[in-house]
Amino acid sequence: MGKKERRVPEAEELNITSMMDMMTIILVFLLKSFSATEVTVTPSSNLKLPMSVADKQPSVALNVVVAKDAIIVDNKRILNLEAYDDPSYPGQKMYRIPQAERPGGGFDVPSLGVAFQDVVSQFDKIGALAKKAGRDDIGGFDGKILFQIDKDIPFTVVRDVMYNAGQAKFSNFEFVVIKTGE
Amino acid sequence: MSKREMPEPEPLNLVPIMNLVTILIPVLLMAIKSLELAVIDTSLPAISPSVAAPPDNIPDKPPLQLKMAVTNQGIRILGANEYLYPGQAKTDDADEEKGKPDVPCKSNARCKGVDDYNWSDLSQKLGQIKKAAQDDDRDSDSVVLISDNNIKYEILVKVMDTSRRSDDGTKLFPSVSIAGGTNQ
Question: How many other C-beta atoms are found inside a 10 Å radius of the C-beta of residue B58?
Fold first, then answer.
């Protein structure tokens, strides 16, 4: 029996120096690509942003998302878009604001108008509160909108959204795009 | 000669650092941006503030009023005929409306998509207008974008990109406004 007992070699301590090397390099790489952008885009199959060579950094503002299926103002779904077959390009889909959403027949879309007005009144409320507290530097209405628009949305929808925003005194429009490396 | 024996140096304990790094990596991985966002500035022509020039400051020549009409046949450049086609009689606006686009699609018919528009030709023509306008003292940074109803947003963004700067990086017309168009 004693003969069979083999001496177990003492376990060597794990050498983690090489792993540390690797981790340090990964850490530096990740720190380099770390972003603190406050603009968040919720990716979905219905929202594909166009590519652009623009290089202006996005800043915080009211988010308006025009996806293929809906218009979302300040994270609230305001109305659904309807898809139809594009008559000039068979097989492709076009998107529009349903006729029922614009009883006047013009550019006016009441549900959108109300949504924008709500945002403006919220801004005003915060502004008034801040003024009461003696802080003039916060809460003011700056009329700025960040548009996240799907690349296949036709100009009519873009124009109607911009028009209704303009009616609610928004005047500074920025379009969010994906930056292409150039 | 008595020699004191030095204690053998202990190997550095890297485990706590490893713990830290292992936690930091997932945190940073979550904050990593796989795509970089940017924004394009525009304004509505009707809403953008207009500042009246003082009377003694009025330039001799009116600044260039460049417009680009995007259709599904191509892109029409309005308001700069004398620079685009020097020496030729200036066509009036009525003809322009019906006429062929200045930058037709590559397939010479209805544009099939964003790549079918002739972007390099547009860029070159805008460069030509910019240079001629500068020589003529009518330089301007602004351009108004007029679009057909069913033009896709992607194409508008590309037009804005092209009008902002040329391929070699020179500034063209960076201040883009979008005109309302008609309701159908």
Answer: 10
CA A37, distance to chain mean position in Å, is 11
A contacts of B17 (beta carbons < 8 Å):
20
Both tokens of B51, joined, read: 């500042």
Helices (H), B66-164: 81-84, 93-98, 119-135, 153-164
Closest by Cβ to A17, choosing from B14, B147, B180: B14
Residues of chain A with pLDDT under 50: 1
Range in A21-30, A36-45, B39-48, B173-182 with the lowest mean pLDDT:
B39-48
Cα A55 from Cα A179, distance rounded (Å)? 7
Reported as a single tens digit per residue, the pLDDT across B74-91 is 888 888 777 777 766 555
A69's tokens = 């299926």
Q: Token digits for B179? A: 């005109």
To test the contact with chain A by mutation, choose from B30, B32, B34, B39 the residue with the greatest count of A C-beta atoms within 10 A, namely: B39
User: Which residues, other chains included, contact A51 with Cβ-Cβ below 8 Å and sequence gap of 6+?
Assistant: A177, A178, A179, A180, B157
Number of domains in chain B: 1
Domain that holds residue B119: 63-179
Phi, psi of B34 (to 5 degrees): -80, -25
The yes-or-no verdict on residue B159 having pLDDT over 80 is: yes
| Residues A172 and A88: beta-carbon distance below 8 Å | no
pLDDT above 70: residue B95: no
User: pTM surpassing 0.90?
Assistant: no
Q: Do the beta carbons of residue B144 and residue B45 sit within 8 Å?
A: yes
Nearest to A157 by CA among A90, A118, A109: A109
Assess A159–B contact: CB distance below 8 Å, yes or no. Answer: yes
The alpha helices in A57-175, defined as continuous H runs, are: 110-132, 155-167
The answer as to whether B102 is a domain residue is yes
Is residue B44 domain-resident? Answer: no
Quick check: is B71 in a domain? Answer: yes
Cβ-nearest to A159 among B18, B48, B180: B180
ipTM, 2 dp: 0.77
Give the one of B14, B39, B112 whose C-beta lies nearest to A20's C-beta: B14
Residue B175 lies in a domain: yes
